[in-house]
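[Discussion] Sanity-checking designs against the backbone

I'm trying to build intuition for which residues belong where. Below is a structure token string of 609 positions. I'd appreciate it if someone posts a full sequence so I can compare it with mine line by line.
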């Protein structure tokens, strides 16, 4: 599962050594604003309006949703208060200083909150590792015939097959990691830079500062942060058993009693109900199961009606092993991590709304004071939407996986628009629409299937029952998260390729402004001919060396620390790779910064509007 986000280290290095400088040169504040500069057409104007609304009201509220769900579990679990009040308190704290200080306050508080969160996470990891027993304790529950298989703690999945062409080789984990490393990193919406990273690059002093800031973020995110979290998770496998209650009968759930911890099921509409206890002898006061069914649900024999919440294990480990005082520090560190994400996305959402919707299309000539007031109102509205969604959500992992798939087909278009003059606003619009539509359809197919069946039955067509067959990435027609990404990317790219073949070429003169300002490398022949004085100074070799070195540094440090902690061979070799990567990164950064062109006419962020 960690590879679902570790793979984006490749995206990050592409951003550091290629896109960070281009974003800074563009002088835009948001991704939406870039569209008008890049495409220079009426379609681009409407695309900017749509992207402004999409990122302000959908994408950022989705992030706020899962982050607030996490805070809800932390606050209600530690302080034992009502979940509604947990959400209200958490959001109120972050919103207060965001409204008062704006982006400057977000940057300063994020810096302090990162330091607090890292101190708290490392403290909890060290204590849990020591108190539970470290790698020796882990070996007692992981292995053949034990609670967990060795696959649980493996860096890479293994396969019983003899090679790529052996069907037995392609187990679900193998297929998933192939999708993540082969497709996921370049297909994601942030393939050319995440929205939060772009905002910080736009605010940086110059190209060099923007690139170095992006580099530090990726090293900290992928090499520094994971192990404190993973250690606590591994130790929780030792002390917190995975518990489930399965239904002994099929039927309809008639009631769920959380006090008596009973679920009543009626096998048939006319039969008496039968009670199923959702208690378990191995439960503890702080580690109890939660019902997974609701009144009115139809269940089959063997269906899970209650289970322990794995996402609450971190909180349980905190309260069990941390002394008073240090527990407060770690709770503060989690709240710091939460607030740094909340303030970032609230501020970002208001930036999209004000910069790309309100100011651009409705009120272009107001005072700065007016725009600040509108931004504050937008911030409160976005947070209210995210809080409402979070109060009605429970599972963070599902929200995160859907978010990854929602626009997972737009990445190739976002990369190509910097490299190839033939990409148009229409191409991007089509990619956005198809990616979102396909991702939503495949995610919620079972929910909307009755509608399809009803409509098709009305015209005499039988609904196709076997709609997915992706081998190990589909289970009885239900797509795994990696399979969902594959379907979304395949459908989106196919439609975009057809669109490019059928659409006429863009006018090169409309692209000269973008080309002069950004100076991108790639296939810009007709545009380059109109601006012969512009000489791109970006070296492909330097970019490749920098990316390779950055990945060697990140994964070498990541696996080196892991091998050392888990007492596995390879720690020294991994750290050598990390050192070699650091040298390559230093060489590339020095070459890029020495070659950088200081353009005194480069616009300030936002001037492109």
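Best answer:
Here's mine. Compare freely.
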């Amino acid at each position: 599962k960690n590879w679902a986000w570790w793979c984006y280290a490749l995206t990050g290095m592409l951003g550091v050594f290629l896109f960070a400088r281009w974003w800074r040169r563009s002088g835009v504040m948001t991704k939406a604003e870039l569209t008008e500069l890049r495409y220079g057409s009426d379609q681009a104007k409407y695309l900017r309006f749509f992207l402004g609304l999409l990122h302000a009201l959908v994408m950022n509220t989705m992030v706020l949703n899962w982050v607030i769900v996490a805070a809800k579990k932390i606050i209600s679990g530690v302080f034992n208060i009502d979940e509604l009040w947990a959400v209200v308190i958490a959001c109120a704290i972050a919103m207060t200083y965001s409204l008062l200080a704006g982006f400057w306050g977000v940057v300063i508080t994020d810096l302090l909150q990162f330091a607090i969160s890292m101190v708290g996470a490392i403290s909890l990891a060290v204590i849990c590792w020591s108190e539970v027993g470290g790698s020796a304790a882990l070996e007692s529950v992981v292995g053949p015939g034990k609670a967990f298989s060795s696959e649980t703690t493996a860096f890479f999945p293994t396969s019983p097959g003899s090679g790529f062409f052996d069907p037995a080789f392609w187990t679900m984990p193998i297929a998933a990691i192939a999708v993540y490393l082969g497709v996921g990193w370049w297909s994601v919406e942030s393939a050319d830079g995440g929205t939060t990273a772009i905002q910080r690059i736009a605010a940086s002093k110059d190209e060099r500062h923007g690139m170095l800031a992006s580099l530090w973020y990726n090293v900290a995110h992928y090499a520094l942060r994971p192990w404190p979290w993973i250690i606590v998770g591994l130790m929780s496998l030792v002390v917190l058993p995975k518990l489930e209650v399965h239904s002994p009968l099929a039927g309809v759930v008639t009631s769920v009693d959380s006090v008596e911890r009973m679920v009543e099921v009626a096998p048939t509409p006319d039969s008496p109900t039968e009670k199923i206890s959702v208690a378990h002898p191995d439960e503890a006061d702080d580690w109890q199961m939660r019902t997974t069914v609701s009144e009115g649900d139809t269940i089959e024999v063997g269906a899970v009606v209650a289970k322990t919440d794995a996402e609450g294990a971190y909180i349980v480990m905190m309260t069990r092993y941390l002394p008073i005082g240090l527990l407060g520090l770690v709770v503060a560190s989690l709240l710091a991590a939460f607030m740094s994400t909340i303030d970032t996305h609230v501020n970002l959402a208001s930036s999209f709304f004000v910069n790309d919707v309100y100011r651009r299309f409705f009120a272009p000539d107001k005072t700065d004071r007016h725009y600040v007031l509108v931004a504050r109102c937008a911030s409160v509205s976005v947070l209210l939407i995210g809080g409402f969604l979070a109060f009605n959500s429970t599972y963070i992992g599902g929200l995160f996986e859907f978010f990854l798939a929602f626009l997972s087909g737009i990445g190739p278009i976002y990369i190509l628009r910097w490299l190839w003059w033939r990409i148009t606003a229409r191409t991007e619009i089509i990619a956005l629409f198809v990616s979102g539509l396909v991702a939503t359809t495949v995610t919620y197919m079972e929910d909307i299937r009755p509608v399809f069946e009803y409509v098709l039955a009305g015209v005499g067509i039988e609904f196709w029952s076997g709609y997915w067959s992706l081998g190990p990435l589909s289970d009885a027609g239900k797509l795994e998260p990696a399979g969902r990404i594959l379907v979304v990317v395949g459908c989106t790219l196919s439609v975009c390729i057809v669109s490019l073949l059928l659409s006429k070429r863009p006018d090169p003169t409309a692209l000269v402004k973008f080309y002069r300002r950004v100076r991108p490398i790639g296939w810009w022949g007709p545009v380059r001919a109109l601006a012969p004085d512009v000489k791109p100074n970006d070296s492909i070799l330097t970019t490749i060396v920098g990316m390779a070195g950055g990945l060697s540094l990140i994964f070498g440090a990541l696996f080196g620390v892991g091998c050392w902690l888990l007492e596995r061979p390879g720690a020294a070799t991994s750290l050598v790779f990390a050192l070699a990567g650091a040298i390559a990164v230093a060489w590339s950064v020095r070459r890029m910064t020495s070659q950088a062109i200081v353009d005194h006419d480069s616009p300030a962020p936002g001037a492109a509007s």
